[in-house]
Every structure is written in structure tokens, then in C-alpha cells.
Amino acid sequence: MTTERKAAQPAARGAAQPATSDTTQPAVLGAAQQAIRDTTQQTIRDTTQPATHLASHDAAPEVPSVTARHATHPRTAPRRTAAHAARLTVALGATALLLTGCGAIDGPERLSADCAVVVDGSGSGADSENGFRAKEKLKATVPGFLADQKCRYVSYAPITSASAASSCQVPRMDLDPDADQRSDRESLWKQTRVLAEAGAEKMLDCARERQPGSDVLGGLERAAKVPRDGDGTYHVLVISDFDQSDPDFRLSKFELETPAQRDEAVDALVAVRGLPRLPDTTVHRVGFAMRGGRTTPARVEQMGQFWQQVLEKEVKVGVDDGYGA
After folding, report:
1. Which of 23, 91, 137, 234 could cross-link 8 (Cys pair, CB 3.0–4.6 Å)?
2. What are 110-127's pLDDT values in tens digits?
3. Cβ within 8 Å of residue 185, ≥6 positions away
């Protein structure tokens, strides 16, 4: 036990000092525990003694004594026992409320989800009228995404000309570390989410400077290889127009109007890139099919059908466009 907690206990029992934010929980616990002890001991004293006298009276009724004359009448003993049991029940109930309040001091439920941010460093993501403004979208969506999905662990992956083999690296982050003991966890999360957004910007800058390109499926493969320590669904935010374009495969070269044409394009992509292993995963798309307004509505629809087939039928992940274009 630390020095701070030792100092907090006398104050809690004596109730002579107001509890501070650092000692509130130990003080309430100390008072609750003392209340249970006092009530329990009193109940035992009040109920055990009459029961003992009654036992003696029943065993030897022919020997009158002062104790027997003043013993609680058999009809009254159960009433007193019930009364003291009720007193103990009330004390336990009050203590439960105190302990519930103590749990609330620790703040909201801890974060638990695994997440990843995948960013497109290709020219189509330029921050101009000719691009879909990748950095602008990153700033607008990453903080909300991390909060909405209750992300605790955040990993990063680039989309480059060879995403899976890219030299761009940004360390994985823990947004709700156990080592931080503050009770105001939400304040901590706001700070760590700012750092997480900065990590995503760093990854984007690296992807743009070193290996520009648009190997979207390779970016998902990179995200598939990071550790998973959290609970539930793996949430992957992909900021990209999803116009796959790398040395081995260019989506722009394929016609996607008919199912047969889309099947041909899917088979060609899988042949050169393979399929990432992403069980229990939802891919959240931002910037899909946007190339500075140069993509026609018909092509946007065809790309949607193509990627639906790749992601939902082949990779078998959920797709969410809820964060908008």
C-alpha cells in the first residue's frame, strides 16, 4: 500500500477531513467496511446472547436463575433477531450503493477495440482540386473514427506502389494505457487521439514522399499483419479513392460494366496480390471513387460493384461508408 492510501484511511474513519480526488475512493471504502463491521458485531451481540440464555432455560427449566428470569421470552427473541438482521441488511444495502459510487470514480468503461488507419499516398489523393484531398479527409475523420469505434490500439499502414513491402513505419499506439492511473480517462483519450491523428499524418507524408502509388489491396494486407490485442471487430479506416494502380495491376485498364468483365478484373487482381486475411473486420471507406471530380457516375457505380465483390465476397469483410466521401 502506498503512503497516500495509508494517509487516506484515518481521514475516512474519522470523517474529520473532506476527501480529495486522490483519496475519495479509499475513504468511502474504509467507511463502508467499518459500517459493516460495527453493525455485524452489534447484531451478533444482540442476537447471540438471548439465544444462549434460551438454550440454557430449555435445557434446565427446573433450576430458576436470574439469567433465566431476565432472558428474552421465546416469542420476543425472533422479533429482536429479525430486527437486527434487518439492520444488517440496510447497512449492506447502503454499503453496496457506496461501492457502486466508488466504481463510477474510475470513469467510463475502458477502450477495447483494435483499429487501423490506412492512408493513400498516391497522386490522386493530392490536396488540390485535382485530388480527393487525403490529408484533409484524414484530419476530418480520424478523431471521430477512433472515438466512435472505441479504439484502444491503433496501427498504421500506407498505400503506395508496393504497400505490403513499403519502408514507411509508424509505431502502433495504445490510446488507453494501463500505466496511466488518472480517473479522468476521457481527458486522456482526447490527448492520445490527437497523437494518433499525428501518427496517421506521418504515415501519409512518408507514403507520398517515398513510394507514391495506389496498391490498395496491399495496404489492407499490411493492416492484416499487425497484432490484435483488443476485443470484438477489427475496424480499418481506409482513406483512398480505391483506384488500384500499381506496377502489376491498373484498374483503369479494365472494363467493369458487366459481371463477366468484373470477374475478369477480380481474378487478375487476386492473381498478383492475393487475399489478405481479415477475419471479423469492417473496412470503413473515405474518399471512395473520388479523383478530383473526374470519375463519371457510371464508373463510380462499376467500381462499387467491383470492390464489393473483392471485399465482401473474396476477402469477406464488412464495408461501411458511413464516414462519407
Report:
1. 23
2. 999 999 999 999 999 999
3. 106, 107, 108, 110, 176
